[in-house]
Automatic annotation (TrEMBL):
Keywords: Hydrolase, Signal. One of its GO terms (molecular function) is hydrolase activity. Its EC number is 3.1.1.-. Gene3D superfamilies: alpha/beta hydrolase (3.40.50.1820). Residues 1-19 form the signal peptide. SUPFAM superfamilies: alpha/beta-Hydrolases. It comes from the Eukaryota. It is an enzyme of class 3 (hydrolase). This is Carboxylic ester hydrolase. Belongs to the type-B carboxylesterase/lipase family. InterPro entries: AB_hydrolase_fold, CarbesteraseB, Carboxylesterase_B_AS, Carboxylesterase_B_CS, Type-B_Carboxylest/Lipase. Residues 24-501 form the Carboxylesterase type B domain.
Length: 528
């Protein structure tokens, strides 16, 4: 079963109930949008940034919206993009989903820095579509514009095959994101933002997407952003177009588009299907040669264009945009993704192979050596925590370590690294630990439990970075200096702990550095 990433219950709700009145009307050329006026902040929810990706636009790059003279009310959350898998229509989701949300200071006396945030969901769902930017604007002293957006995911966003390449586009979920960034360049000034001071951020698959945009088109800089933030970064398993063909062929077979006259143009047959029929066969399955489905089947594909090579290799080769950055991860990134019944190394290896099928017997033997049997937890298999730690480090923690290292290696000095380690009592008891993307709640003002204490500290660091490209320039009073990353000085990271008065710089443990360097050495041989 593919896990659904949920940050915190508060992220699925408005930040806090506030009185709303009709806000200002903004004309972006193809339409005018009226949002909500809050206290010192204007909010637009559901601003269309691209045409409906339906019918002939299905599996094509985003298209410009159709012009209309009708005033568009941007007053409520838009529906999200359809996820994979599904056995029918998902509540609150729609194929017509390419909308963004904006929070901006009411003060338009000067243009404000912009934060464009990409939500996660493993590139298979929009996992946190209702993240509210109000808290960040307030934390940033009303000197920041926040933008969030939907992008196509799963079979609708990342289907790849020779047929799609010939009469469509590959990686359209990432192209949606890029289209939104281009929209920001054209229009954000009308909302009070400065298009020349854009920070691109993301969590989980959103952070992986940040990596992909840094390396897109061989590292070409189109001026879409000037700094980046990545929470729980990953180098996901990447396939070539040819390797992705099995996904398309399986969908075609389920749709019966390989029968009779329909087989003459299988992609047309799929485009002709109603969305209601298509979602009924929107299933996932194992990679070829495996018996279990991966956590995330659909993902970015090496298309020779947007993604020219494995992302990890692109960074190693220096083929990426060099900008100020923050990267990091939580202590126990893999626990929520790992089956609870892992009872031996064979179970661990089967799980890892399901997600990274190019792992060899030698690779797995090394992983088994590096990750011994770990602590036991009620209701979990003896090797659950072992598998969770290996998977978490391989997919999330090590990219969070490797990216600052690659940036520093290519001469970028404005790089900050972090380790979020705020442990909730219930997660200490059940073994989940400090979970995937837990840190994001403290930055967006939706923290609960012990994370609340970090909220005013960590959010100020990030607001400072978005405004000044320096985490320390406008940090909270009394907060320690967050030292820039230095690969020759113990791989320093800011360690966020339960007691914020004890936040301090730390060096990456040698065993973690060794494990991550080994995973990095595998790179393209295992598909990332």
């Amino acid at each position: 079963m593919i896990p659904v990433i949920v940050l915190g219950a508060a992220l699925s709700l408005s930040h806090r109930a506030r009185a709303k009145t009709p806000g200002p009307i903004v004309d972006v050329g193809y339409s005018s949008f009226q949002g909500n006026a809050l206290e010192g902040i204007n909010e637009w929810l559901g601003v269309r940034y691209a045409a409906p990706p339906t019918k002939e636009n299905r599996w094509r790059a985003p298209q410009a919206p159709v012009s209309t003279d009708t005033l568009q009310k941007a007053e409520k959350w838009p529906e999200v993009c359809l996820p994979s898998p599904s056995a029918g229509k998902t509540a609150g989701a729609n194929e017509d989903c390419l909308f963004l949300n904006i929070w901006a200071p009411a003060d338009l006396s000067k243009p404000h820095p912009v934060y464009v945030f990409l939500q996660g969901g493993g590139m298979n769902n929009n996992a946190s579509p209702k993240m509210n930017g109000t808290y960040l604007v307030v934390t940033g002293d009303h000197d920041m514009v926040v933008v969030t957006l939907n992008y196509r995911v799963g079979v609708f966003g990342f289907l790849a095959s020779k047929e799609v390449k010939a009469d469509g586009d590959i990686n359209i979920g990432n192209l949606d994101q890029r289209f939104a960034l281009q929209w920001v360049q054209k229009n954000i000034e009308k909302f009070g933002g400065d298009p020349k001071r854009v920070t691109l951020g993301g969590e989980s698959a959103g952070a992986a997407s940040v990596n992909l945009h840094l390396a897109a088109y061989g590292g070409r800089d189109d001026g879409l952003f000037q700094a980046v933030v990545g929470h729980s970064n990953s180098f996901g398993y990447q396939l070539t177009v040819d390797e992705s063909q099995y996904q398309f062929d399986a969908l075609v077979a389920r749709a019966k588009c390989d029968q009779g006259d329909k087989a003459k143009d299988k992609l047309k047959c799929l485009r002709d299907m109603s969305v209601d029929d298509l979602v009924k066969i929107n299933l996932v399955g194992p990679h070829p040669g495996q018996t279990e489905a991966p956590n995330f089947m659909y993902s970015n594909t090496m298309d020779g264009n947007f993604t020219a090579e494995y992302t990890h290799q692109a960074f190693a080769d220096g083929k990426f945009i060099k900008v100020p950055s923050i990267f990091g991860a939580n202590s126990n990134e893999g626990t929520i993704f790992t089956p609870g019944g892992l009872s031996n190394y064979d179970d661990v290896n089967k799980f890892l192979k399901a997600n990274y099928p190019k792992l060899t017997a030698e690779h797995l033997a090394n992983i088994d050596h590096y990750y011994p049997k770990m602590a036991q937890f009620l209701g979990k298999g003896e090797y659950w925590r072992t598998g969770a730690t290996a998977y978490g480090e391989m997919r999330y923690n090590c990219p969070g370590y490797s990216l600052p290292k690659q940036f520093a290696a290519h001469g970028i000095t404005d790089v900050w690294h972090y380790h979020y380690d705020v442990l909730k009592p219930e997660n200490a008891a059940n073994g989940n630990g400090v979970t995937h993307c837990q840190d994001v709640n403290s930055i967006w003002g939706t923290a609960t439990g012990p994370d609340v204490a970090q909220q005013p500290i960590i959010s100020k660091y990030y607001a400072s970075f978005i405004r000044m490209h320096d985490v320390n320039a406008l940090k909270a009073a009394g907060a320690p200096d967050w030292v820039r990353f230095n690969a020759t000085d113990g791989m320093q990271a800011m360690h966020f702990v339960n007691d914020p008065t004890k936040n301090a710089m730390e060096s990456t443990p040698q065993y973690t550095a060794d494990n991550c360097d080994w995973f990095a050495s595998l790179g393209a041989t295992i598909g990332f």
